[in-house]
């Protein structure tokens, strides 16, 4: 069967339509998909688009950045409390993370309208603490169950300095004694 | 299945030139009635906008749960995909699911009509992660799949590679339009050359310009690809069942139906 292998000129449909019109393809030999395409054409004709080589001609269509008003609260939360203690479980679609609970509580307190912005953060943290979620500040030293053995904190240099000073004292006393 | 000594697995057989409907029909119905019935069978589905009710098969929530809206990062974005994107969340492209819904409905509708008319459908995907899934999908709907290395002359040199009088696919469905080196699959350009319409799932790093019915969506997540495979399988089976029903309805004999499927 006759065909047209020029994929860069026109669409599949226009080429076949023109071939039928000119008589190269007989109406009996019409392809199966021709009538279906005619009745239900795609939203955009599948024309070949030439790749842009010169960077000056590139006029970038803007793809909007997606930001929500809660993002400000989220930035504050992540700056203060780091990544949060509980890991995010993305397999569940209805999972509520620690940050999300913080955001919800913040908005709830804000809607009450009694507190101002500066103290809202602390109030939200206190409210969450009441519900049982402990928020640990970023950069704070971790709280250990047992305190470190004071022996471990001794430094060799200090010990030597002590010994030397002790040694000079004893020599002085012996000298005093001898003399 | 053709297996040649070079061991590339072409999972489809090109059927020989199809016997025309009217010749060899030994039934008692007159010829003019048979041709009229055929025309009616073929043209009736084109009158309704959604004859096969493909819009019922999926909803926006299904697409969201299957993570179809997740694109690649901003740096991988193809400039021609920009109209299909909803936005960019912290450098991750998000595909507009409203547009995806419309495109998917058009694509499924087209597939259904092709399957209804007895067209050959070829599933292509060069993603090795989903190769088996695509092959089983094609097997389940009685169509064909090609998930291995695409030889250069598969479509363009078919008469020499497979013998004269080979019938090419009437529709090619790409579950992923990229090959293993992140370039556009050769099949898209070849199908456009051979005047074969294509349906393709285009991700945010793909070129949708030559695909006849592009479906903007995620092609990397297993959940999304399973959803697409399921949808295509259901539409094709639905269309084929509908065809059998229509033929019975219009009272054509079993003889004529057998001859048509040779």
Automatic annotation (TrEMBL), chain A:
Residues annotated as domain Small ribosomal subunit protein mS23 conserved: 2-132
Main location per the UniProt record: mitochondrion
BP terms from Gene Ontology: translation
Keywords: Mitochondrion, Ribonucleoprotein, Ribosomal protein
GO molecular function: structural constituent of ribosome
InterPro entries in alphabetical order: mS23_dom, mS23_dom_met, Ribosomal_mS23_met
Localization (cell): Mitochondrion
Domain of life: Eukaryota
The keyword Repeat appears for this protein: no
Keyword Ribonucleoprotein part of the UniProt annotation: yes
Gene Ontology cellular component list: mitochondrion; ribosome
UniProt xrefs under PANTHER family: MITOCHONDRIAL RIBOSOMAL PROTEIN S23, SMALL RIBOSOMAL SUBUNIT PROTEIN MS23
Similarity comment: family membership: Belongs to the mitochondrion-specific ribosomal protein mS23 family.
Protein name: Small ribosomal subunit protein mS23
UniProt organism field: Oreochromis niloticus (Nile tilapia)
From TrEMBL, chain B:
Gene Ontology biological process terms in this record: translation
Pfam families: Ribosomal_S2
A cellular component annotation (GO) from this entry: mitochondrial inner membrane
Subcellular localization, as worded in the UniProt entry: Mitochondrion
Record key words, sorted: Mitochondrion, Ribonucleoprotein, Ribosomal protein
Domain of life per record: Eukaryota
GO molecular function annotation: structural constituent of ribosome
InterPro entries assigned to the protein according to its UniProt record, in alphabetical order: Ribosomal_uS2, Ribosomal_uS2_bac/mit/plastid, Ribosomal_uS2_CS, Ribosomal_uS2_flav_dom_sf
Family indicated by similarity: Belongs to the universal ribosomal protein uS2 family.
Summary of the function given for this chain in its UniProt record: Required for mitoribosome formation and stability, and mitochondrial translation.
Protein name from the UniProt record: Small ribosomal subunit protein uS2m
Organism: Oreochromis niloticus
Taxonomic lineage of the native organism: Eukaryota, Metazoa, Chordata, Craniata, Vertebrata
Gene behind the chain: MRPS2
């Amino acid at each position: 069967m006759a065909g047209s292998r020029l994929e860069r000129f026109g669409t599949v449909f226009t080429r076949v339509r023109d071939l039928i019109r000119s008589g190269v393809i007989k109406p009996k030999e019409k392809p199966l998909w021709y009538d279906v395409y005619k009745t239900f054409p795609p939203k955009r004709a599948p024309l070949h688009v030439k790749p842009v080589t010169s960077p000056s001609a590139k006029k970038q269509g803007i793809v909007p950045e997606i930001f929500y008003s809660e993002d400000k609260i989220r930035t504050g939360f992540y700056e203060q409390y780091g990544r949060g203690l509980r890991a995010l479980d993305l397999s569940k679609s209805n999972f509520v993370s620690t940050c999300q609970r913080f955001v919800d509580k913040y908005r709830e307190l804000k809607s009450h309208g009694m507190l101002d912005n500066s103290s809202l953060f602390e109030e939200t943290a206190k409210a969450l603490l009441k519900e049982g979620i402990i928020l640990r500040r970023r950069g704070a030293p971790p709280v250990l169950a047992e305190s470190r053995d004071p022996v471990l904190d001794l430094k060799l240099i200090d010990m030597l300095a002590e010994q030397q000073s002790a040694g000079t004292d004893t020599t002085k006393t012996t000298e005093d004694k001898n003399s | 299945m053709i297996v040649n000594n070079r061991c590339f697995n072409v999972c489809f057989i090109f059927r020989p030139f199809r016997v025309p409907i009217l010749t060899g029909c030994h039934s008692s119905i007159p010829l003019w009635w048979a041709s009229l019935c055929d025309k009616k069978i073929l043209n009736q589905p084109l009158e309704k906008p959604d004859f096969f009710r493909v819009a019922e098969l999926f909803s926006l929530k299904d697409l969201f749960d299957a993570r179809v809206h997740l694109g690649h990062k901003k740096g991988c974005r193809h400039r021609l995909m920009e109209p299909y994107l909803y936005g960019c969340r912290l450098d991750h492209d998000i595909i507009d699911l409203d547009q995806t819904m419309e495109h998917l409905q058009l694509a499924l509708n087209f597939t259904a009509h092709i399957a209804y008319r007895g067209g050959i459908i070829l599933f292509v995907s060069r993603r090795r992660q989903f190769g088996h899934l695509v092959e089983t999908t094609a097997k389940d709907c009685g169509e064909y799949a090609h998930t291995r290395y695409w030889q250069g002359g598969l479509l363009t040199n078919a008469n020499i590679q497979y013998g004269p009088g080979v019938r090419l696919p009437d529709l090619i469905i790409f579950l992923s339009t990229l090959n293993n080196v992140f370039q556009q699959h050769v099949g898209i350009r070849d199908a456009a050359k051979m005047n074969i319409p294509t349906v393709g799932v285009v991700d945010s790093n793909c070129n949708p310009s030559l695909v006849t019915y592009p479906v903007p969506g995620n092609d990397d997540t297993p959940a999304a690809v399973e959803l697409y495979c399921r949808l295509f399988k259901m539409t094709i089976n639905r269309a084929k069942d509908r065809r059998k029903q229509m033929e019975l309805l219009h009272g054509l004999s079993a003889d004529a139906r057998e001859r048509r499927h040779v």
